[in-house]
From TrEMBL, chain A:
Pfam family, one: ABC_tran
Organism field: Pelagibius litoralis
Keyword terms: ATP-binding, Nucleotide-binding, Transport
Protein name: ABC transporter ATP-binding protein
Keyword Nucleotide-binding in record: yes
Amino acid sequence: MTDKPALTLEKVCKRYGKAEILKGISLTVKPGERVALLGHNGAGKTTLMKLILGLTKLTAGRITVAGAEPGSAAARRASTYLPEAVAFHKLLSGREQLRLFARLAGESPRCVEPLLERVGLGEAAGRRIGTWSKGMRQRLGLAQALLGQPRVALLDEPTSGLDPISRHDLYAVIDEIAARGAAVLIASHALTEVEARTDRIAILRQGRLVADDTLEQLRAQAGLPIRLRLTAQRDGAEELQTRLGGLRVNGTAVELHCRPEEKMDRLARITALGGLVADVEMAPPSLEDLYRHYSGEDRR
Amino acid sequence: MMSRILAVSASEFAIARRNRWVFMATGIMTLFALALTFAGAAPTGSLGVDLLTVSVASMTTLSVYLTPLLALLMAFDAIAGEAERGGLALLMTYPVSRGELLLGKFAAQLGVLAFAVMVGFGAAGATAALAGGAGAESLAALARLIGTSILLGGAFLALGYAVSAVGGSSTGAAGLAAGLWLVFVVLYDLGLLGAVVFDDGGTFTRTVFPWLLTVNPADAFRLWNVAAAEGVALATGMTGAASALPAWAAPAALILWPLLALGLARIAFGRIEP
């Protein structure tokens, strides 16, 4: 494994007619690295993936996939793709469909059976895909993404429509792909889905990359306030508010916001109030808050 | 390259078998061919040819209509349907070229069509030969009919792919395919007929008209079958145009058409962004 990026994007721009979908995206993914690509519907995630796959042409900028031009035979061999809505032919069995992909990828048809077992489709493989559930089709999509030795793996909303157990399996497979040295890019619209499973998070907003860092760094940079919710002893809420400021939430509670570095100081002041406070609840900014902050939804 | 074409072909053939295209195409061909053979049993005596010759002549006319129709019906969804389902985008991320995809589908569907033609016309031919006799010449005519029908089917399969790529959606492609059939099989001939009647035996009829017939694969198919066998020509009454052309013209046109149409389909397919 080298540190040379398996996937590089330099000032990538894409325009459909007058609409500018992507405005100068630069991003690199190293072998074995898992990067989450987040953004709302229409932020340009799928377009970016299509550019990397060579399915659509760049307006400006440069992309290399394992050192090759997107869409070239070398790039196609080096990359795998799991589309958001996996559409296979209804009349083919899972085994036949995967065998077709294996042969197109230049792999031996013998690798098909172990792969089907790997994604838990060993028993259903002989039945026609038309009779399968959505989760099963998604697993087949994953199986085809595992074909060969991918150096770049692109997964578009891989968890959409999956139950929690399948989701868990899915991430186990993704970890495996990364462990074998592939650069993994996972598009999603929810931070909560990818949080624990990625090394880095990139956020797209209206065609621009507004964040590209680890979760911890993003948290620190955002400096989102910590929320403290105090429950007062009977009738004490008013006094609590005059002493500490903040907002009355209902008859007995007061809500305070403070920056992470002020947290200890605040807590000390709260404890000093003694019996006036019945309870303290502390909530660090949630992933949802963080995502909203970067994707520009928190301007109220 | 070959292994990828074969892979596409194999799965395409499995699909054709399961959506009953193999069964339907063969059934339709056989049914019509047999019906025409029995209906054509009457005029044998008056023309002084064997029943197989008459049968081939009627099947030639049948094939002009039916083969392009079956080919277009099989082909129109090949690209548009795949693109609509989203399967095309995934396929295109594999190291398989558009040309290879196209050739793989073409090989499978031409195989289905060839099977249908051979079984259908073969069965009708065998029936006619058993019932009314056959000579070496009429057997050759039957073989020619089968071979040229496959070429004709190939031309329209490829035209169907072109239409499928241009149509944008399955329904759009279906509409275009229907239009294509109407133009090539019906309207083109009507137009030429009108021109010939208007010209009333002038230079157009004698020099331009026969060449215009070779431009249309359906007419080239008819000409080839008519020109090559006297008996068939007699039975279809198309000797005039056939004798005005060099012998190679119609075969050349019919052999070139599938290649040309495949080229067109490849260009149209190249413009699709999945």
